[in-house]
Structures are given as structure tokens and as C-alpha cells.
Structure to design on (134 residues):
């Protein structure tokens, strides 16, 4: 219990404090809104975390889709450009982290020369789809 409390305190303290402790903690992202400025909420129901690595070949596209669960993404390798329709386009590269658009239609395309690999972590709920194709 004490260890869990200490780890929680380190994560909440922010990167300046956390980097001077052991184990070192580097905050990748802390946000109350998505990449297109939306507030987001967690789905109703029993909590369910899903972590996945998405791999796309050069030129491949996700197809138009929406996320019904908040999604943290970290670009492990490569480059992806996401079209958010009327909200514009953003390009993400290795080392970038983001809270993806929530309940908003978008399409990602690998615009790099090699594969793109993305760590995707959904903060969802049982019986709520993380991603819905359109």
C-alpha cells in the first residue's frame, strides 16, 4: 500500500520532482483535452484498460473511424498524418504523444518512408468499443 501511494505521489508531482527520484519517472503527457481541443469523458460501466501496438506499412491508412473511449497514443517509430476533417490535419512522429480525438471522425495515414508503430492505450469500459469504423 505504501509503495502504491509513493508511486502515485511521484506521478502526480510532475517531471521535475519525479526525475530526481528512483525509479525515474518521465511524464510523456498530461492533458484534460484531445489534440483538437475537446474535453473527454470516460465511458459508463466497469473500467477496462486496453493497450495495443498498431503497426502500419508505408502508405497504409486506418480508414475513417471514431474512438468511443479516451485514447493515449505514443509514436514508437515512423510518421502518421491524421485527417480530422473540418478540424484539420496533424502529423505525428517518433517520440510524440497525444490524446487522440474523441468521438470525432478521423483517418490516419502512414506518410513516412518506413513502418509506423504506435502504442495505443484506451481508457474504456466493458461493452464500449474502443474504435468504431465508419
Amino acid at each position: 500500500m505504501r509503495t502504491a501511494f509513493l508511486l502515485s505521489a511521484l506521478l502526480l508531482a510532475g517531471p521535475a520532482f519525479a526525475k530526481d527520484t528512483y525509479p525515474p519517472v518521465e511524464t510523456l503527457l498530461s492533458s484534460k483535452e484531445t489534440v483538437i481541443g475537446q474535453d473527454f469523458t470516460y465511458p459508463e460501466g466497469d473500467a477496462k484498460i486496453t493497450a495495443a501496438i498498431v503497426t502500419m506499412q508505408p502508405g497504409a491508412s486506418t480508414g475513417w473511424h471514431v474512438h468511443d473511449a479516451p485514447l493515449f497514443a505514443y509514436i514508437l517509430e515512423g510518421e502518421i498524418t491524421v485527417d480530422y476533417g473540418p478540424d484539420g490535419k496533424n502529423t505525428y512522429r517518433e517520440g510524440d504523444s497525444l490524446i487522440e480525438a474523441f468521438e470525432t471522425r478521423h483517418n490516419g495515414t502512414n506518410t513516412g518512408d518506413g513502418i509506423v508503430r504506435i502504442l495505443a492505450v484506451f481508457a474504456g469500459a466493458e461493452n464500449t468499443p474502443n474504435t468504431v469504423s465508419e
User: Anything to note?
Assistant: The chain has a mean pLDDT of 88. The radius of gyration is 16 Å. The chain has two domains: 1-28, 31-133. The CA atoms of residues 28 and 90 lie 18 Å apart.
